[in-house]
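Worked problem 6 (solution included).
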Amino acid sequence: MLPFSPRRSAFPCLEAHYDLGKVEIDRAVAPHHPWPHAPFYMQAIASAHEELRREHQIDAFFSGNGGDNIFCAIRSASPFVDRFMAQGPRHGLFDTLRDLSDLTGASGATILRHAWDRYRDCSRPVKLHRDTSGLSSAAIAELDVPRPPHPWMEAPEGTPPGKAAHVRLLARAHRSIELYPRRSHPQHVAPLLSQPIVETCLSIPTWQWIEGGRDRAVARAAFKPIVPVQLLRRTSKGGPGGFMQRIFQANAEHAGDLLRTGLLARAGLLDLRTLEGASQPTVAGFEKAQRILALCAAESWVRWWTDVRAS
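Solution. The predicted structure is:
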């Protein structure tokens, strides 16, 4: 690795804030994607990228997308189970128990109980979480129809549960590696998801990723010579959740109209009772608001494709 100092860098650091005025919830966020949902904050990012394209010659956008996924940012008892399956009841196992307790704030007894559940479930098919809120009973029934699973969701027999979860995280990262259509925009490069880095990270035991009670511990250690200690020690980071809440507050009425009169409702796929209580300043209200925005993104995606087919 070449030495790098931001102070000596010849590259300027340009900052941009999410611009609420660039978000339109009835406009498809990423219609080139084969799935009907992409978060609306991506429209604000795309706007900032477009401004850069007007000012500079840009051949590619590089991002850190997929970093949490490949750096095994999981918070469960799985690393404890993985170490037990690999090494048995050795002294290091209790180090992992302590690391998990420091990382999650859970007691040792709670971690051991969850670890036992994970260990018993190793031979059972993976249960994928599905958010069915806002969907009609007919739509939920359609989800229960057997379909071929994603090959990365079915781990080979004997795979430790933490490593299987690590691979499933990579499958989720695929949703963020194609920002824009290739024919009209510069390509998007996610270096952290390149093959050498993926293979290296997957070869590292999951308990090493939480060493010292910090998530992504291996990555923190790797970048220790070049990253400020304040960043290495941080235990949380900002995200787009607050901006998404602002999007909902600015578009709550429009979101309701969009869903009530939309193609999804016309097809009988929505339970419009989900629109009730989304503006309440509670955790439940926040979660419901985010779900409504996800349904609006799906509605806008469907409308875009319907208009394309019609024309």
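Discussion: Confidence is low (pLDDT under 50) at residues 1-6.
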